[in-house]
Amino acid sequence: MGVVERRRRDDGFTLTEMMAVLVVIGILALIAIASYTGASNRAAAAACYENQRTIESAIPVYMSLNNGQKPATIDDLEPYVRTWANVTHCPADRDTTLTLDPVTLKVSCPLHPR
What gap in Å lies between CA 91 and CA 39, rounded to an integer? Predict the structure, then answer.
């Protein structure tokens, strides 16, 4: 009888144990995906805010070279921003363009308002 008992113990995992492991792995995967998505969204928002600040930092330069005149559109600032093609679009959605309010001289993004 000792041989039969030894075989039963060495057969491997039961279906219940395997299902428990799969459930735990699935939960961990969901947590990792949610965490990654949140971090990715926060990084895109931070990059968008930095792009807005970069464009706004060109406004005093534009005004000093144009006798204090305010820029009418965001495109007026293109010669004063080195990485123009990269900073005029929101990193979260490349089809979204940043805009300039000519009254307040603030650059804004529809996806990431400040």
Answer: 14
Domain-wise residue ranges, the chain:
13-108
- Positive or negative, the CA dihedral 97, 100, 101, 107 is positive
DSSP per-residue string spanning 13-76: --HHHHHHHHHHHHHHHHHHHHHHHHHHHHHHHHHHHHHHHHHHHTHHHHHHHTTTPPPSSGGG
Residue 108 has pLDDT above 90, yes or no: yes
Residue 62: closest CA among 50, 75, 49, 51 = 75
The pair of structure tokens assigned to 14 is 């039961």
pTM for the whole structure: 0.72
Q: What is the pLDDT of residues 9-50, one digit of tens each?
A: 667 889 999 999 999 999 999 999 999 999 999 999 999 999
